[in-house]
Amino acid sequence: MTEITSFPQGGIGQVHGRALILRGEDIDTDRIIPARFLKCVSFEALGNQVFEDDRLELGGSHPFDLPVNQGASILIVNGNFGCGSSREHAPQALMRWGIRALIGESFAEIFYGNCLALGIPCATAAAAQIETLQESVAADPSQTWDLNIHTKQLQSDIGSWDLQVESGPREMLLTGRWDATSQLLDHQAALKRTMATLPYLNDFVVSVQ
Amino acid sequence: MWDLHRVAELSGGSTQLFVGLHLIHEVTSPQAFAALQDKALSVQCPERTVATVDHIVPTINQNRPFADPLAEEMLSTLEQNCAHYGIVLHGLGSGSQGIVHVIAPELGLTQPGMTVACGDSHTSTHGAFGAIAFGIGTSQVRDVLASQSIAMNKLKVRRIWVDGQLSCGVHAKDLILHVIRNLGVKAGVGHAYEFAGPAIEALSMEERMTLCNMAIEGGARCGYVNPDDVTFAYLQGRLHAPVAEAWQRAVAWWSSLASDANAAFDDEVKFDAVSIAPTVTWGITPAQGIAVDETVPTPDSLALSERSIAEQAYRYMDLEPGSAIEGLPVDVCFIGSCTNGRLSDLKAAAAIAQGRHVAKGIKAFVVPGSQQVARAAEAEGLDDLFRTAGFEWREPGCSMCLAMNPDRLDGRQISASSSNRNFKGRQGSSSGRTLLMSPAMVAAAAITGQVTDVRTLLRNDCTPPGISH
Fold first, then answer.
1. What is the ipTM of this complex?
2. Does A61 touch chain B (CB under 8 A)?
3. pTM over 0.80, yes/no
4. Residue A100 falls in which region: left (phi positive, over 0), alpha (psi -120 to 50) or beta
């Protein structure tokens, strides 16, 4: 069992570790990290606060509290996971708890982009496939899995699942260019050219200041 | 419009888009500024970046330092970052502070044909002007600060065509709750929602903002309405709107942007405004809505995929399938938010509150969306009207929409709320319950102490939608 200690860096070709299941449709980012924990100027403390209210409600039986799931790094969810608020605090909280990849039927768009910006792949599969995968994980939570971004497969000793990873994000993960800042800064001249042709910066300039 | 903002095609297939207006606030920017400092980067276009403070501000006592040291730290961090990088901050003493999605339009910052980004999902609001506007996360806030651009994939466009006209007592909020109820919370993923048709053309800018604001609740990252004369009339004379000859050039360009009648869309859905009634959510997602005179749906009336979340909602809300929503007692009534905190929203609520009084035991409060909205409302005497009717009149901010300030539900309280999300725990209590509805419906609930069809409280002053409210 690999203990993951560092945050994603460089090219992400594979995520190796145990998996945990969180069932439910439309799990929103307010549930992942309640708004009161957004009162912070750094993300550092968020790992302990992930799913705080749901965990309190379940009194220790929430998947993120179960002893068997501690140290797991691949989160398996259902549909429209991460909907609602754009707060990056949500994937930050998951990452700081230990999550390094998500697999689900579908993800909300802003959440998906936020995960990518942290180097966390979100792979998808059809609902029926997610269900059998969840059953396989539940049957033996101690088994380890390999999420291979190259082959878009999830593998363990008991079998292999084909997943979808969008081609653009997949390439960004593999090449380590998921941290977009440097790529965006590479095109300064093109940026100036775009700015020189936009009507609202040239034909009727109005400063926001 | 997309092509005009294109900077480059990026490896991985996304497009680098120039961001014409970057709006920032205290919650999603501090870590972005910290990351800039870590990378020794600067702010590319401070002159295209505008800040305000909204999420954490108290609405009763805004004196500094705030009673909450964390809130104070967040605001002072924003102040330091804005001062350091030369970014205009519409702060508490400015006269122009308010919810970011209220102030940018009212200052004339949001204009047709622009790209607008902000670290807040309700940035979809600005699409009401014919802008491409989308919410982003903190890493992307960092990217926009550093490069004034963002990596985006082109969205599909679903046109939501609305025929007819909204009836008396039915508002843009009811329309969008009706749309989301029908399309669900995830149908919009990967799409922009373009709202069009006679009912949309008849809406005021403030109503169009309400509509686009909640596109994200249907999963659509962007809302959009073609710019037209209503848009131009709203913008003319605003602080940052062009003037004189520049105004003429601007209108000419803006007019050229509208998608024409024969434009092809990836998808189209049609609604009839006449059939829409005041709408209320009963559950824990914005799609769990019903007309006020309907009953909570039974599991067998729902699609299979909706049943599990419905079961959760019955339990959390403590509502029986098949029970009426009308007459359900409420505890707290909240009028405000980026969805419904503008002057016309307050006027619609005031028309119901006038000459009546909040029911015994109900806490009802009004939070204007901005200092400008507050001043305009006070000039019309709405503050006194609300106070006389038993409502509290507060200072501007996001308030109990997400309860990052002291305004929050207590325990299992039920709120009638003009905000945008009824998620579990959204309004500051992990067991608190939220019923989303229009500001007029919230006012009606405050007066009677229970969910009430606002049409039963209308007087002869019902103005057709889009005329004066």
1. 0.93
2. no
3. yes
4. alpha
